[in-house]
Amino acid sequence: MSLPFNVANHLDTVLRAVATKLGLADRGFQPEVRVADPANGDYQANGALAFAKREKLNPRALGQQIVDQLGGLQEHFDISLAGPGFINFRLRPATLLAWLQTYDSEEHLQAGAASARRGQTWIVDYSAPNTAKQMHVGHLRSAVIGEAICRLLAFSGAKVIRDNHIGDWGTQFGKLIWACKRHLDATALAGDPLEEFERLYKLGTKAAEADPAVLAEAQHELVKLQTGDAENLAIWKKINDVSLAAFQVIYGQLGIRFDVSLGESFYNDKVARIYRELTECGLAQESQGALVVFHPEHPRFKTQPFIIRKKDGAANYASSDLATVLYRAEHFKVDGAAYVIDFRQSDHMDQLFLTTRKWFEKTGRKLPQLEHVDFGTVLGGDGKPLKTRNGENIRLKDLLAEARERAFALVSGKNPDFPEAERRAIADVVGVASVQYADLSQNRSSDYVFAWDKMISLEGNTAAYLLYAVARIRSIFRKAGLDTGQPPVAGATAPESPQELALARKLGKFSDAVQLATGTLRPHFLGLHLYELAGAFSTFYAADKVIVDDPAVRARRLLLCHRTLVELEAGLHLLGLRTDLERM
RNA sequence: GCGAGCGUAGCACAAUGGAUAGUGUAGUGGCCUCCGAAGCCAUUGAUCCGGGUUCGACUCCCGGCGCUCGCACCA
Questions:
Q1: How far is Cα A157 from Cα A119, in angstroms, rounded to an integer?
Q2: N- or C-end of chain A: fewer Cβ atoms within 10 A?
Q3: Number of structural domains, chain A?
């Protein structure tokens, strides 16, 4: 028997078969296979405890009964019954070696993982900045988390559509066009066009606030735009083109590439159908002049309306989001849609999903799995949303530039002898990766404190610590005159020392980490695995010399080094980080 | 007011109802004649309060307290 990519799933399958044989399955036995604390083994099955309790059986006797049926697993596992009825599985060293020999590259790891969601189509809605404004720190999390989720879903076999649902339509364009027609600075526009549009946007907003006549003019410009006025449409298009080009620079640095950018304007001509359908199926009603949806069974949404058409007859983001769900279901035929949007919009998302569920049910449509991938706020050291000293939003381009500068200073301090161009290249990787990883290494649901010192200090669970492990492994190969692409690992023996074993066992948990991160749409589970892997490597590296004379020992330690490199890189790539550095 | 989320060592975080609540940082004490010390080893220190469910609760339920966010036409 060859060992499967995900050992826990294999154990689950075997245990279910045993449960069937023992007549437990039809009474609801669940194996409950979990990754175990290393002190207890590699995996544990907890199912006997709950089942025995429910069926009034002795849990240890039941556990023993199950263990007695697991003879076929003895080749690969040391199996024991422990405590009140835990079944512990410890992989044998030879099995660890076999697993490591099989999963020897990023491609093979992916091949192993790709069965989980084969045949599924997912659309991921992330980033979604508004045009005419610079991307700022508030846009960071959606972009970074969204990209990681796309990669995780694709890795587990899904077809993924990356959709940038940009805010390219709305009432702000009235004020903006008003300002463009009166205050455009051609020189500034030629220099940094987005900067100029942002200035005009602020100017237009202020002017409209101060003077009702301006507001009226701006509203007129908006109506002209909406009714297809050629001049206003041209300005609008110019603004969007300029904005997208500026966004693209940021996306390039973050390793993001979208498949489609279907912004709000794309859905302009699709909202009338929403009003009609929702009214016809009895979900929508008039209230205070607006078209709204109430949910009588819901404690809050029975009185808090979901406004899908404003009293002035215009669409809003609810109408547009409903049209978007329909388009994704009809045109892309998605099985799932993940919305990477901050937690403050939870009410909106709840109302959107609730309404969609009822609407699709009434119209006989298949409902995709709808997931709000929410996330908290990026905070400053004062515990408030991160801003500049004068209270402005921090621009993403400035933030990323500072990250690279700080990384450059650090690399230069550590390795002043590296050529400057190389130090720059290293800083580009380390700086951006540090920002990305600071976000991805913790549970997305909570707010997080943005602290340069912690994220680039290179201590603890940081990108630099992981990349340092990558650099050290490359260094071992380089110094020994070996190629990481052709590791000389023939004749490797099974891991022996405690540090080799700990590292090998950690390597085998990659699949569990990917599965957990993907299943929960929480990338930090993968980050945590990579951090623990890098730690296990550092411990191994300090304890066991790799380049030794004994060919078998040398081959197996090189094998461990190589697989650590492969997994660290595969994992970091899954999180959207670059790893292309030889040394740092 | 109603609703949602969050309260874990000085600080920053982790824990898919499981075994002795993990890690980083800060503190203390060790380790470079040896493949990179941006490292390794050891050690001090925590579940907001009160009930409940469970063989077992940071996790689930109820009630407090505290912080954050949302609540009619911005997205």
A1: 7
A2: N
A3: 3
